[in-house]
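TASK: fixed-backbone design
INPUT:
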């Protein structure tokens, strides 16, 4: 029997589920406040979607995808990122015919990448992502960045800033490719095999290489900001003005290109300063050509993705995780096995009144029931049975003060609900 989860995956156990719920509740609330509605797409898609959408020169497509043949001999891939699937759904459902922009989010979406597992980045991890389809103005990126900074701020994270760059469009990027190839040409032999392969296909991807020898070479490369066309330059300057007006701390970082081929113009990362280094918590950008490339009409778009595991790890590192709520507010103890039916009915009545209630499911003695109620973190014990039940009352014991109160059986659920929830 297999006794371990596959490498790079982990279980979410009941005792930590509340952490995910607290994070997801905040994300849902802010998404609704910003006018974004939820979208859910399949865990797997046709492989061609990612080959065309994400790009053939990305590490995701060339090295990290979980791809297999189904029984119909079709190539299927577990989704390695969220945007391509959301765009496919947008096109397939003809959402472009609806009033635009179409603003969607996905939450706790499983993402699969075959890479070396590390803290906050597993082979199966989960993302919160937002996509805005149909908005061409830099206010789209400013809105997404504003929401991200609001979310992380509400979670208690500090020392945050946004690093932004513009990687141009299909009109001005070829000029930068020429400048980059001219700079790298004589140095190409000293670079890694991946960068040498990218040189002709997409030299911009070389700037995203993580190998130190390649990073040292490209550190002196020309900046793409010097090659932007007037439209891209104006768009980028307007974004900076919008962020400044919202007092969002940002820095222009020409080295950011992101790891996906579909980006155009704006790319950004939210950075948290940790000592002398910065940790990228999440990132995104604009992808004005992707919808058309996947069969839809020419439609501008932008979005971001944020890993939930990484955020939970950082919240834990900073002591910002919420306290675990009690499993039960009221434990219903039956006095004697012959009163189990009445105790069971009273437990259901409490739940119907909106009280988190638990009762005995294991045939425990009264003493053992008290111990179990304490382990559950119950605030009260309701004693059902004995001469109290004969008199038509329930005894409620406050486990903190040890105070006991008798309540009429018929009215007890409502009275307890008022006490617990009020």
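OUTPUT:
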């Amino acid at each position: 029997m297999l006794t371990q989860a596959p490498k790079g995956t982990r279980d979410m156990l009941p005792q930590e589920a509340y952490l995910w719920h607290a994070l997801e509740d905040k994300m849902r609330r802010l998404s609704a406040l910003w006018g974004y509605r939820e979208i859910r797409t399949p865990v797997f898609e046709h492989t061609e979607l990612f080959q065309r959408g994400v790009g053939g020169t990305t590490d995701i497509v060339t090295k990290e995808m979980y791809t297999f043949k189904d029984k119909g001999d079709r190539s299927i891939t577990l989704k390695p990122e969220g945007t391509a699937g959301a765009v496919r759904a947008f096109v397939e459902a003809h959402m472009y015919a609806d009033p635009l922009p179409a603003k969607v989010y996905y939450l706790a979406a499983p993402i699969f990448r075959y890479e070396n597992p590390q803290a906050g980045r597993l082979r199966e991890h989960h993302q919160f992502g937002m996509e805005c389809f149909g908005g061409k103005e830099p206010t789209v990126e400013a809105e997404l960045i504003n929401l991200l900074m609001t979310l992380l701020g509400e979670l208690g994270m500090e020392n945050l800033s946004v690093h932004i760059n513009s990687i141009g469009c299909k009109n001005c990027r070829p000029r930068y490719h020429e400048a980059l190839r001219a700079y790298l040409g004589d140095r190409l032999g000293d670079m890694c095999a991946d960068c040498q392969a990218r040189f002709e296909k997409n030299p911009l991807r070389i700037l995203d290489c993580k190998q130190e020898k390649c990073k040292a070479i490209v550190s002196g490369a020309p900046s793409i900001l010097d090659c932007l066309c007037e439209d891209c330059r104006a768009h980028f300057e307007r974004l900076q003005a919008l962020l400044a007006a919202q007092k969002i701390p940002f820095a222009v970082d020409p080295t950011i290109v992101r790891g996906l081929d579909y980006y155009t113009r704006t790319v950004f990362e939210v950075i948290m300063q940790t000592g002398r280094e910065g940790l990228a918590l999440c990132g995104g950008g604009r992808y004005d050509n992707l919808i058309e490339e996947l069969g839809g009409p020419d439609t501008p778009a932008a979005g971001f993705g944020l890993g939930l595991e990484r955020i939970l790890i950082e919240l834990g590192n900073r002591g910002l995780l919420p306290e675990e709520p009690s499993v039960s507010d009221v434990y219903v103890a039956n006095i004697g096995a012959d009163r189990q039916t009445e105790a069971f009915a009273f437990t259901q009545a409490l739940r119907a009144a909106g009280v988190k209630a638990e009762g005995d499911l294991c045939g425990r003695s009264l003493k053992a029931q008290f111990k179990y109620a304490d382990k559950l973190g119950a605030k009260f014990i309701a004693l059902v049975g004995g001469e109290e039940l004969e008199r038509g009352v329930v005894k409620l014991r406050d486990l903190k003060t040890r105070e006991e109160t008798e309540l009429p059986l018929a009215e007890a659920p409502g009275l307890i609900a008022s006490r617990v929830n009020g």
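COMMENT: The chain has two domains: 14-172+228-317, 330-421.
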